[in-house]
Amino acid sequence: MNPHNELPNRFSDKVRAMPGGENLDACYACGTCVSKCMIQQKVEAEFNPRRLLKMVMLDKQTEAFQDPTTWMCSRCDLCYPACPQQIHISELIHSVKQLAVEAGYSSSLDVVNVDEGLCSGCGICVMACPYEAPSLFEKGVNGSTDRFAMVDGTRCMGCGICVAACPAGAIARDGVSNQEITSQIKTISSNSAPSLAIFVCDWCLRAESDLSILESYPDPVNVIHIPCSGRIDPQMALLALGRGYDGVLVCGCKPGECHYVRGTMIGSCKMEMLGRMNGQMDITGQPVRFVQIGTQERGRIREEIDAMLNSMPLRKES
Amino acid sequence: MKKNKVAFYWAGSCGGCEITITELGMNLIDFADQVEILFWPAILDFKYSDVKALQDQEIDICFFNGAICNQENEQLALLLRKKSNKLVAFGACSNNGGIPGLVNLCDAEAIIQRVYYTTPSLDETRGTRPQQITRVPEGEIEIPALCNRVRTLAQVVPVDYFMPGCPPVADQVWKVLQLVLAGDLPENSGVIGVDEKTTCDVCPRKKGNNDVRIKEFKRPHEVLMDPDVCFLVQGVICCGPVTRAGCGLPCLNANMPCRGCYGAPEGVVDQGAKLLSAIAAIIDTDNPDQINQILDSIVDPVGTFYRFSLADSILNELKYTRFNS
Questions:
Q1: Shortest CA distance from B285: residue in chain A
Q2: Same domain assignment for residues B176 and B272
Q3: Do A56 and A62 touch, CB atoms closer than 8 A?
């Protein structure tokens, strides 16, 4: 039975009938969720779950569908443990988004695209995506049936996890394509000071002061921003070492605080395994490291960078 | 008509690349009729002095299989490069190091120790150890010294064409030999005898969907594998996603995962690291403590991710350049 069949026409009732919607009326608009939200702090001042919930309660459908909150929530659920009413706010926002998609609205985010000329249809992106955005489909090519991935732009959050996972280099979005990231990895010629390539997730550093710490290090300590630590490709870490960096530090969010749900776990698996492989090859001194920085851990980024710089022996070209 | 002058050579290899040529059957007879074979130690009686006596670039095309494992391999690579107009890295070992490239996990002395002293089936009481120079009544005989590091052919001399595979399958070999006969080899150097895209593109197995993620990896002998379902979905590491298509899927058809012998596709600079990037993304856990446990189920990560490409990897390069301990 389709639960939508017997719905009354009121927008708020439609939301109430969606999964998690029953909690709508529990919200008393305290705004704790807003204070916890990284999007509100870092990207979009207009992002406001409290206001969105209020819009829904007041049946302001068009406003709700157009509100950036509907489209930008990545379901990290940082707000859930803080909510005194224990509402899964992200579930509610997701319900509003689903209704918006059904009504023909589309995401305002930069989403990934698949290049069918490169896609092999392996399905890795389908399994990797935290948001069930990619799926496989078949179509006839030159008389035979071929399999490709396609990405549902209304589900994609632009985290880039699939871009790193795609073995064929078939997935990209502006700013996080393989080329754009690898072109930022410099070639280090002289080793007068320890050099370090830092790949830092866009979300793990909460405070402005932490971001300015990153900028305070002179060359050859270089920072490359990635949307999520799940976007790191171990090839990039190896390329950086191959181009002369003494070390590679990848920074992501603390488990449970990842903006893209699974990203930090994926990043940690990659870097842990790369470290193990370095060990197998007798590459010593832990030249690749992964740190997970919690939202409360202000200043930790400096400690981690300094610890790494101090522990790295100067390496000479051989 | 002037006959093409061809040569075949085996360096550090198992001999499988030579076998694949004999697999051509009657086509090989046709081929041999239409070319002049100047050197092919596996099949015909030639001496190195015969090669040395050739004019420079007298060989039109030389198919060189095997990795560069010892001084003899290296000398022959240099000699055949000099005597050949076009040099083909033939097979996984000369392309990417192949199985011999896994030697780079240790060094020459460790290999000698293993082979001549600590292999369990060995009668080590005899203490036989090969010497580079041995005196016999007739004089001195010399065996080539083992290199400390296994290299690909292109790491030793410039290579014109790369033809991967362990071994390159007979169908692809025949296609390439026909190009040789017709004079239709591509003008620019590059990879030949392969298909576009990756093995997954041609693999008919049912792929994963968004409710499939991996909590434990299994090796092929630990699990009964469904022949119709993607190996990765079953938790068995398959190199198909990062391996060029063109082999005709003999391993997959025997219900074994792809091992990666056809090398990385265009755009992948390090086959093992790219495979890790793909595999890590399909691991399923919310619990950080479980990560190590899941990764522990990948026994021998270098041997798994870089089975055929270690000698050609950035990881390997780091070991021998700036990160040698």
A1: A265
A2: no
A3: no
**Residue B92 and residue B89: Cα distance in Å, rounded?**
8
Radius of gyration of chain B (CA): 22
Alpha carbon distance, N-terminus to C-terminus of chain B: 58
- Candidates 1.10.3720.10, 3.40.640.10, 3.40.50.20, 3.30.70.20; CATH matching A113-172: 3.30.70.20
Chain B: closest CA distance from residue A124 (Å): 7
What stretches of chain B adopt beta strand conformation (E)?
Answer: 4-10, 35-39, 59-65, 68-70, 84-90, 133-136, 139-142, 146-151, 161-163, 190-191
Give B197's contacts (C-beta < 8 A, 6+ positions apart): A118, A120, A168, B244, B245, B265
Residue ranges of alpha helices (H) inside A6-160 are 11-16, 32-36, 38-42, 49-57, 61-66, 68-72, 89-102, 124-128
Select the CATH number that applies to the domain covering A178-311 from these four: 2.160.10, 1.10.357, 3.40.50, 1.10.10: 3.40.50
| In contact, B246 and A204? CB cutoff 8 Å | no
- Of A223, A113, A106, the C-alpha closest to A155 is A106
Cα–Cα distance, A33 to B122 (Å, whole number): 69
For residue B21, give the CATH number of its domain: 3.40.50.700
Domain A3-102 has CATH 2.60.40.10: no
Q: Are A235 and B267 an interchain contact pair (Cβ–Cβ within 8 Å)?
A: no
| Sequence-ordered strand ranges (E) for B40-171 | 59-65, 68-70, 84-90, 133-136, 139-142, 146-151, 161-163
Q: Supply A116's token pair.
A: 């069918």
Per CB-CB distance under 8 Å, the chain B contacts of A127 are: 208-210, 212-213, 232-233, 281-282
**Strand stretches in B111-202, DSSP E:** 133-136, 139-142, 146-151, 161-163, 190-191
pLDDT tens string, chain A, 318 residues long: the values are: 455 555 567 999 999 999 888 889 999 999 999 988 889 888 888 899 999 999 999 999 999 999 999 999 999 998 999 999 999 999 999 999 999 999 999 988 999 999 999 999 999 999 999 999 999 999 988 888 899 999 999 999 999 999 999 999 999 998 889 999 999 999 988 767 889 999 999 999 888 889 899 999 998 999 999 999 999 999 999 999 999 999 999 999 999 999 999 999 999 999 999 999 999 999 988 899 999 999 889 899 999 999 999 988 766 554
Q: Hey, are the CB atoms on B321 and A127 less than 8 Å from each other?
A: no
Q: How far, in Å, are A38, A219, A226, A289, B317 from residue A316 at the CA level? A: 42, 17, 29, 21, 14
Tokens of B145: 């010294």
- In angstroms, the separation between the Cα of residue A11 and the nearest Cα of chain B is 30
Cβ-contact B73, B67 below 8 angstroms = yes
Give me A152's structure tokens. Answer: 């549902």
Token pair of A63 as six digits? 């406003």
Residues of B in contact with A315 (CB under 8 A): 322-323
Q: What is the pTM of this model?
A: 0.94
Q: What is the DSSP letter of B198?
A: B
Give the best residue of A120, A159, A317 to mutate against chain B (max B CB count within 10 A).
A120
